[in-house]
Amino acid sequence: MGWIEILDRAEVVTDKHHIRGSTGGGEIRRAPNLVPLRITCLPNDQDKMFKLSDKILLLCVGEAGDTVQFAEYIQKNIQLYKMRNGYELSPKAAANFTRKNLADYLRSRTPYHVNLLLAGFDETDGPGLYYMDHLSALAKAPFAAHGYGAYLTLSILDRYYRPDLTRDEAVDLLKKCIEELNKRFILNLPSFSVRLIDKEGIHDLEKLMPVGAK
Amino acid sequence: MAMSYDRAITVFSPDGHLFQVEYAQEAVKKGSTAVGVRGKNVVVLGVEKKTVAKLQDDRTVRKICALDDNVFMAFAGLTADARIVVNRARVECQSHRLTVEDPVTVEYITRFISSIKQRYTQSNGRRPFGISSLIVGFDFDGTPHLYQTDPSGTYHAWKANAIGRSAKTVREFLEKNYKEEHMESDTDTIKLAIRALLEVVQSGGKNIELAIMKRDESMKILVQEEIEEYVTAIVKEKEEAEKQKKKT
C-alpha cells in the first residue's frame, strides 16, 4: 500500500508498495483544503487532486493558475489516449508523458511552475508513486513530499516507513506526519482531504482534521 | 457535358450540382450497411460485418467508434476517411471538455463533424470525405439523440436510420416497424436494430456487430453470444407471427 499526504505549498507525499502482494496494494494521498495568504487564510474547496483516469491521481501544486491549467491539460490528453486506443495509459506511461510535457514547456517562454505527485495502480506492476518537480525531474519513490512541510514529514517517513505497511498502518503513518506538522509547522493547516488508490480504483477517505488546528 | 464539371470539387455544374459530392455519396452506397435506432433509454448502432479473410484478425476491423464517454458513431464508406474524421472528433470532444468543463452534446459534435466535411467540399485541391456517419449518444441532461451526416456536410436528426448498401430497404423496414411505444423497452429497441440489419445481411447474426449505450453508461459492444440470443428470439417471434397468420 502506499499513501501520500500533501499540505498546501508544503506537501508531503508518501507511498508504499505492497511487496508480498496478497491482497494488492494501494496508495493514499492527502491535500489540505485551504490557501494561506500572508496572515489571512482563504478557505478553499478547490481539490488539488485531479483524476487522470480510473486508477491514476495527479496532485498538482505550485503557481496559482498554472496548476489547474497544466493538470486539466494532462487530464484531457490522458482521456484522449483512452478514446483513441480503447485502453488507458499505465501510471508509468502517464507519469512520463506528464514529465515530457513539463520538460517541453520548461524551455519555452511559458514554463509551468508546478510540483506534481502522480499516484496510480497498475494491473501488473501494482501501486506506484511518481515525484515530479517544476524542473521536470521524475522519480519513482516509496514516499514523497513537496514544499516546506517536506522538511518535517520526510524525516517521519524515513523513520517509520516500511515496504510492507498495511492499509491501516499507512493511514496511521499519514496521521503521524500531520501531527508533526500540526506541532512544528508555522502554518496552520486545519483540514486535509485524503484519497486512496488500490486495485478497485480511487476511494475518498474521511477528511483529517488535526486536533488544535482551527 | 457532365465530364468537364467533375474535375475540380470547387466547380458547380450548370444545373447546380457538385458532382464530387454526389460521387462521394455513391462511394457511401458501396459501403457496408449501418443502422441506428434511438430508444427512450438506450441508443443502438448496428453494422454489417464484412466476412474477414481466414488469416485476418477481425478485432482490427471496427466500424463503431466511441468518440467520448457519452457519444459514439458508425460510418459507411471509405474506412480510411472515417479514421481521420473520428480522430478529429475525439480531439474535439476532449478540447470541449477542457474549455467548457462539460461533455459535448451529440448535436455539437455532429455539427463539428459536418463542418469539417463541408469545408472539404469548398476547398481547392481536396476531395470530400467519402463517408456518411450515424452519431448517437446522450446529452448531459439525459436526452438521447441520433444524427446522420453525409459527404456534403448536412446533418439531420432521426429516430431511426440506415446508411450504406441497401440503406433504402432498411429505412423502409424501419419506417414500417418503428413503434414509439416499443422504444420504452431497451430489448425492443435493440431487437428493431437487429431485425432491420437481418433484412439485408446474409447468414444472420454472425455478420452483425452491435453497440449499445444506456443513459449514464459508456458504450458497450455486444459479444457474439448476446447477439445470437437476440437473433434466436427474433426468429422465434417471426415463426409465431407466421403461425398466427396461418391460423387466421
Automatic annotation (TrEMBL), chain A:
Q: What does this protein do?
A: Non-catalytic component of the 20S core proteasome complex involved in the proteolytic degradation of most intracellular proteins. This complex plays numerous essential roles within the cell by associating with different regulatory particles. Associated with two 19S regulatory particles, forms the 26S proteasome and thus participates in the ATP-dependent degradation of ubiquitinated proteins. Component of the proteasome, a multicatalytic proteinase complex which is characterized by its ability to cleave peptides with Arg, Phe, Tyr, Leu, and Glu adjacent to the leaving group at neutral or slightly basic pH. The proteasome has an ATP-dependent proteolytic activity.
SUPFAM superfamilies reported for this sequence? N-terminal nucleophile aminohydrolases (Ntn hydrolases)
Quaternary structure annotation from Swiss-Prot or TrEMBL: Component of the proteasome complex.
- Per the record's keyword annotation, is Cell membrane included, yes or no? no
One Pfam short name = Proteasome
Q: Which family does it belong to?
A: Belongs to the peptidase T1B family.
Query: Is Transmembrane one of the keywords?
Result: no
Its localization reads: Cytoplasm; Nucleus
Give the primary localization class.
Answer: cytoplasm
Q: What are the entry keywords? A: Cytoplasm, Nucleus, Proteasome
GO annotation, cellular component aspect = cytoplasm; nucleus; proteasome core complex
Residue ranges of the TM segments: none
For this entry, the protein name equals: Proteasome subunit beta
Which PROSITE patterns does the record associate with it?
PROTEASOME_BETA_2 (PS51476)
Q: Which GO terms describe its biological process?
A: proteasomal protein catabolic process
UniProtKB/TrEMBL annotation, chain B:
Q: Name one GO biological process term.
A: ubiquitin-dependent protein catabolic process
> Which top-level group of life is the source organism from?
Eukaryota
Q: Does the keyword Nucleus apply?
A: yes
How does this polypeptide assemble, per the annotation? The 26S proteasome consists of a 20S proteasome core and two 19S regulatory subunits.
| Keyword Nucleus belongs to the record | yes
Gene3D superfamilies tied to this protein: Glutamine Phosphoribosylpyrophosphate, subunit 1, domain 1 (3.60.20.10)
Q: Which family does it belong to?
A: Belongs to the peptidase T1A family.
Q: Domain Proteasome alpha-type subunits: where? A: 5-27
Which is an annotated Pfam family here? Proteasome
Tell me what this protein is called. Proteasome subunit alpha type
Q: Which UniProt keywords apply?
A: Cytoplasm, Nucleus, Proteasome
Q: Give the matching InterPro entries.
A: Ntn_hydrolases_N, Proteasome_alpha, Proteasome_alpha-type, Proteasome_asu_N, Proteasome_sua/b
Question: In the UniProt record, which is one GO cellular component term?
Answer: cytosol
Q: Which organism is it from?
A: Hucho hucho
Enumerate the subcellular locations listed in this protein's record, separating them with semicolons: Cytoplasm; Nucleus
